[in-house]
Amino acid sequence: MNTITRRGFSGVIPTMARLRFLTAPTYAAFSAATCSSAIAQGIAVAAKDFTEQLLVAEMTAQLLRAHGYSVHKGTGFGGPTIRAFQESGVIDLSWEYTGTALSMFHQETKKQLPGEGYERIKTLDAKRGLVWLAPSKVNNTYSLAMRREDAAAKGIASISELAAKVSKGEGIRVASTPEFPGRPDGLKSLQQAYRFEFMLGYVVTMEAGAVYSTLRRSEFDVGVVYTTDPRISAFDLTVLRDDKDAFPNYIMAPVIRQSALERHPDLRTVLESLSAVLDNDTMRALNAAVDLQGRNLEEVASEFLQRSALIGSP
Question: pLDDT tens-digit profile of 205-214?
């Protein structure tokens, strides 16, 4: 069977229920692979296409393998794709954010405290056969950032002050991640909360990494960033204060199919041992090792797991 990376699984996806997602040329190899009980009992792990997600997926895969599991890891998926695959049984496990799940998959936009949001999504997703395990302390929410010197020169420290400038006709250009304008918890929610609207054509979408490079080159005034991204401090950016709490909390937690957890109840303890050691400072440091220092993602993941005493040295 062809190995699919980035946009698919780097391994064989077990069980006949998953066959419809495979192309015809892979049928024979798939059938042969399912004869192996080890493969059939494998855990399919998926991640979105940005460094933090790639890191937690790799750490999860290494941790599960250290506990004797066969792991099939797929990366580069969009959030809705992961959710659809997980609900239909193609994917067993992913790491998701409370704000994302509530707004995108349940259309809930009410601002909630971290604990409230977690308990709410845990209850809602239980009805869909998905179990939210104990959350990490990572809250990777959206933020708006500006170059420090520009923010000081314009007198902008909060989103309210930014909104006031835009409302007075100042042409402020925004470098945005691709999904932000269309998300219910993104641009629309932000503009509603602050009662303003960016000028037509002044919000330009690009890959997340390009947001930082364009800000650095002074091509845009504001960038849509994530709070655990190490480039905020590395590029001397100022995060504007969300003084109206427009952005929800995005607490990261492992989400697993109920059926997979029933087959392997010890997965709870294994996965929660990882979530227990993750917080914003930790993720910034791990993200920095990959994005700023150019280190190998697999090595960064392995070293962290060893340092945290979650796996032994090779």
Answer: 998 889 999 9
